[in-house]
Input
Amino acid sequence: MPAPARPVRACLAVWLLLSGAAAGAAAQVPGNALFHDSHFHLTNYVQEGTDIHEYLKIMGDRIGRSTLFGIPLQQTWSYENSGEYGPTYYLSSDAPLYYYSFTDAFIAMTYRSLTKAEQARFDPMITGFNPADMYAVDHIKRVLRTFPGVFSGIGEFTIHKEFVSSKVAGEVASLTDPALDSILSFAGKAGLVVILHNDLDVPFAKAGQQPVFLKQLTDLFRRHPDARIIWAHVGLGRVVHPVLSGGATQGERPPAMLELVRGILEDPTLRHVHFDISWDEVAKYVVATPQSLQNTAMIINRYPDRFLFGTDNVAPTEQKKHLAVYEMYQPLWQALSPEASAKVRKGNYERLFDEARVRVRAWEKANPR
Output
């Protein structure tokens, strides 16, 4: 009968490591922080951004912890397309985007420039891979081995995104691509948190049709039950609006957004899927009407463990602007129960990323360079 002791000891060791990691991080985080930022870009589409030490000042005591990632796509400056004008955003040029893998090394070295106390406030993410490339998973492993002790997850990376996907040079990413399956399979094994951007639907979708990407996306999620997945922006975008119902001006589209999200939350095969409500565009949808606010608060209050807040800000320059998305959500914070509000703003971040820190460090130790 002594055989079970080893798994028990192993579980206890993991619990102690996890508790220690959480306590170490908590000791460095301001106790009165408003939120942890689950979705933050330090750099933009031409790999320029805010100095990390300046960003710490912007965070101040208002933001406790933050993910840390760049943007995996570089906007080409094509002289034939825009002449002397150098575009810094993907909507500013017709020239293509291409994957910029050096972003991961830049984020890692930026993180390493911090003190240990400062590092405890960040969870860097790997983004510089092409999800249509079967070698992408090797890039992720290589980054972990080259920069052990740094990264907690992968993302935000994109499969289908309005106006972006069609601009990416090379093979088109797909939710059915085995390259993507290999990425999520490895993330599940190594403990990496996954932040995935995939629009719910195509831009300017017509009324009366099912969201184009919903089935492929949920099928993908089901194939990877061991991965901790955060679906960015609940699949929404600038022109990918919430699925409407009940006489809305754009017409009725099945299923309504509330039922769609609830269907994922209630599906036992999708319990590993979380949603982030980052981005000011998403906040506009949530607070647009009393009904949209009520629907959102109702679903989050019922499933408070499945939602995270993030800013989705890119290279901020001052604290006031950086907190703007959080302030937009004030009606939502007031509509949530205190328990739900605390989990969305901080608790769920701590649970997911504290676990990731322990599991990824264990994978790195077992798989050295």
